[in-house]
Amino acid sequence: MIKVLGIKIIDRIKEAGLTQGVLSRHANVITTRLGFHEVTEEVCSREAYIILHLNGDPADTDNLAMELKKLDGIETREMVFTSDSEPMNIQSAKERVEILGVLVERSQPVVLSVQKILTSYGCNIRTRLGVNEVFFGEPAGLIILELKGDEKQRLLLERDLKALNQVHVRTIVF
Average of pLDDT values for 155-160? Predict the structure, then answer.
């Protein structure tokens, strides 16, 4: 099982310290951490997002998720990759943050097909992070995407990726 945890911090100035404390206590199960928030010359957003790639004993990763859920001022979402069927993304909203997790089993034709699809939808991918993973004992790549732009295009991207064999897709929406 592979687990990715998404965290939305409503007010990072108020809540970041408490969130960081929980993350530090559970650092042993955090493989990769990606944090982002809007920054321009005019504004520095108080809202922030953290994406965690977790690895370790499922009880330990569950404890991290439960401890985060007890904090005020944050929201959490999970995506889990197992051999189970993949749920479709049905949530819709205008101003949302959508994180797509793409687990790619290592096969040159599959990797090339995924890259071709991601390139064709590049205008909808704001952030991309790739990490190495093992899925049922075999090498795999985990790609985490922050999606923006036209909702129809985002749903088509998800559909096209799910149509590939050896590609597993999960979604977190805030």
Answer: 96
Among 81, 97, 132, residue at a domain's last position: 81
Which residue, among 122, 116, 140, 138, has the nearest Cα to 130 in the 3D structure? 140
**Mean pLDDT, range 160-172, rounded to an integer:** 95
Query: 130 in the Ramachandran plot: left (φ > 0), alpha (ψ -120 to 50) or beta?
Result: beta
Burial label for 156, CB within 10 Å (0-12, 13-18, 19+), is middle
| Band of residue 85 on the pLDDT scale cut at 50, 70, 90 | low
Residue 31 contacts residue 87 (beta carbons within 8 Å): no
- Name residues whose C-beta falls within 8 Å of residue 132's C-beta, 6 or more positions apart in sequence: 139, 140, 141, 142
Q: Which domain holds residue 5?
A: 1-81
Count the neighbouring beta carbons within 10 Å of the beta carbon of residue 112: 10
Over the chain, what is the mean pLDDT? 88
